[in-house]
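User: Please fill in residues for this 313-position structure.
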């Protein structure tokens, strides 16, 4: 029963992956997870070269044996990229295709928050007047609102489209099917969404919620549209995880919130934020043979937070 052993269920040895937003937060955790567990190449894309290099440095620090041989430069490979620019995505594709013949897994993870536009009670607990609501929300420049969609939705779409030929090439490398033997996973796109895309309550801002709702539908549309090409498309919808983007009022300084009791049950039923292990385990599962039957799904990882938000469920 070796095929049921964890080392085979989550086997990603030799995998070639591309990760946008790989210089921080969940993207960095994804990159380190894949590289640590046997991926052949992990290309990390992002706008900030220093952040991308920090991801590489963290991998070197935790894998001293590869540092001695210089092998780490062949595993995590940083490429400065702006996902809102077709020219930049084309340049990234050219750089990656010069170093690999295929891509097995594309993790579309870049994202930003929007302007802090949400309706909140006054300090005395009273509701703002409708005139105050209008004036506050109207004061947000339209281009600031639109910018969130440009990164979170449009950028995700064009990133997925940019790498289709390399994903198709991965499928063409698969071993021919054998009767009663599980076939290897098809090439896959995984897009990072958020539970905000389901929630009617606005934890951050209107633009972020709406952009992530669009991302959720993008997963569904792409998974259907690419069926004939055998390219799978799935999504991950995280709740509260500590990162540069979520830090601030959600977390006390120096506390990542991963221990029980860090948050009230009214906010997160499990009373803690997600940790690196939570996202790492999910990525290994969806990238390996264990997740090979998943397509068109959005996997919620939020400690139950969505269940206590007013949502569309």
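Assistant: Residues filled in for all 313 positions:
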């Amino acid at each position: 029963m070796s095929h049921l052993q964890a080392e085979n269920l989550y086997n990603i040895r030799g995998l070639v992956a591309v990760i946008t937003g790989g210089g921080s937060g969940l993207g960095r955790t994804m990159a380190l997870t894949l590289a640590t567990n046997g991926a052949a190449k992990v290309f990390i894309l992002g706008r900030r070269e220093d952040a991308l290099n920090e991801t590489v440095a963290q991998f070197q620090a935790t894998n001293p044996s590869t540092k001695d041989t210089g092998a780490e430069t062949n595993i995590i490979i940083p490429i400065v990229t702006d996902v809102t620019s077709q020219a930049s995505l084309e340049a990234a594709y050219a750089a990656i295709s010069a170093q690999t013949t295929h891509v097995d897994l594309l993790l579309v993870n870049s994202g930003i928050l929007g302007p802090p536009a949400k309706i909140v009670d006054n300090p005395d607990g009273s509701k703002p007047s409708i005139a105050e609501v209008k004036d506050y929300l109207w004061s947000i420049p339209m281009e600031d609102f639109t910018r969130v969609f440009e990164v979170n939705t449009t950028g995700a779409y064009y990133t997925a489209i940019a790498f289709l030929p390399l994903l198709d090439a991965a499928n063409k490398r698969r071993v021919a099917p054998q009767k009663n033997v599980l076939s290897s996973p098809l090439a896959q796109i995984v897009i990072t969404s958020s539970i905000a895309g389901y929630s009617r309550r606005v934890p951050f801002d209107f633009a972020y919620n709406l952009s992530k709702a669009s991302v959720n539908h993008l997963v569904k549309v792409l998974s259907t549209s690419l069926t004939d090409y055998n390219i799978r498309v799935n999504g991950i919808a995280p709740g509260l995880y500590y990162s540069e983007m979520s830090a601030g009022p959600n977390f006390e300084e120096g506390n990542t919130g991963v221990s029980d009791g860090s948050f009230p049950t009214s906010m997160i039923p499990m009373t803690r934020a997600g940790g690196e292990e939570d996202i790492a385990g999910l990525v290994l599962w969806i990238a390996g043979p264990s997740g090979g039957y998943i397509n068109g799904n959005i996997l919620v990882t939020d400690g139950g937070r969505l269940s206590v938000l007013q949502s569309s469920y």
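For context: The chain has one domain: 2-114+149-308.
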